[in-house]
Specification:
Elements: E1 5-6, H1 7-13, H2 19-27, E2 31-33, E3 36-37, E4 44-45, E5 52-54, E6 57-58, E7 66-71, E8 101-102, E9 111-117, H3 120-127, E10 135-142, H4 147-155, E11 169-178, E12 181-190, H5 197-204, E13 208-217, E14 220-221, E15 231-233, H6 236-247
The structure holds uracil.
Residues 106-107, 110, 196-199, 212 line the site of uracil.
């Protein structure tokens, strides 16, 4: 149900300025609500139904945004960090006011699909260990990946802290003796998200991940046309599928 909110809160959420900047802006007479000039930035409005115009521009209100990022290496999956750049630092400025956060983490050196949103409920559901949302990774492995690894991952392997992983699906794309050494190329689908899980699963079978990229999370697949480091909003269809998945 639509709820009333302060005009300055609505405009601040959409990036029109801080509360004190908005107080001045509204006082200057350039903001109308349902075609009436308003001077009080604390006015209660219905952001989804009232027609709010700022300096000739009709605002389009929305509470939530859902973003797909092609995360590059070298940035941290967090909203702030004292040392490194974060994924939020990479967002176009129009999304900064929405206070989005990454849904789950990718390591600093991992690339690929990262969902960012300010919809806490959706994020919570996608991250809930009980939901077993599948995540698929593409990796290059230092070592000869074999059928015995596929069987071990399907049965569950014991990580360095004694945790036994849930069944995971390993697809071997390439393996064996290559010109530049013994290496494997794989896709691995896991339904949980332990710290460094993919890397530690390969360590448990004596191999090392040398490149890691997430290619899907639930129904969401990395857009091959999205350049590394760039972000776009989810399409309506992607969002509908994701919402359906979180309720499943
Ligand atoms: N598993 C890892 O080891 N690293 C990631 O970033 C994601 C999954």
């Amino acid at each position: 149900m639509a709820a009333k909110q302060r005009l300055d809160k609505v405009l601040a959420h959409l990036g029109y300025g801080t509360r004190s900047e908005l107080k001045k802006l509204v006082k200057s007479g350039v903001v109308t609500v349902n075609d009436k000039v308003v001077k009080d930035s604390g006015l209660q409005v219905l952001p989804e139904t009232d027609r709010i115009v700022v300096a000739g521009e009709t605002i389009v209100y929305r509470e939530f945004v859902y973003l797909m990022m092609h995360k590059p290496q070298g940035v941290i999956s967090a909203t702030e960090d004292w040392k490194d750049r974060t994924v939020v630092d990479l967002l176009p400025s129009e999304y900064q006011p929405f206070d989005v956060f990454p849904v789950g983490r990718l390591d600093k050196d991992t690339e690929g699909l990262l969902l960012l949103t300010n919809d806490g409920k959706l994020a919570h559901n996608l991250l809930s260990p009980r939901k077993h949302v599948p995540k698929t990774y593409y990796a290059k492995i230092d070592g000869d990946v074999s059928e015995s690894d596929r069987i071990a991952f399907a049965e569950g392997v014991t990580l360095d802290d004694g945790y036994k992983t849930l069944p995971a699906e390993l697809k071997i794309i390439a393996s064996g003796n290559q010109v530049d050494g013994i290496y494997g190329e794989i896709e691995l689908t896991i339904v949980e998200g332990k710290f460094h899980q993919v890397k530690r699963m390969f360590e448990s079978v004596g191999k090392k991940v040398v490149y890691l990229k997430r290619i899907s999370m639930g129904p969401l697949v990395i857009d091959p046309a999205l350049p590394l480091g760039e972000t776009r909003e989810l399409t309506e269809q992607e969002l509908a599928e994701l919402k359906q998945h979180q309720n499943a």
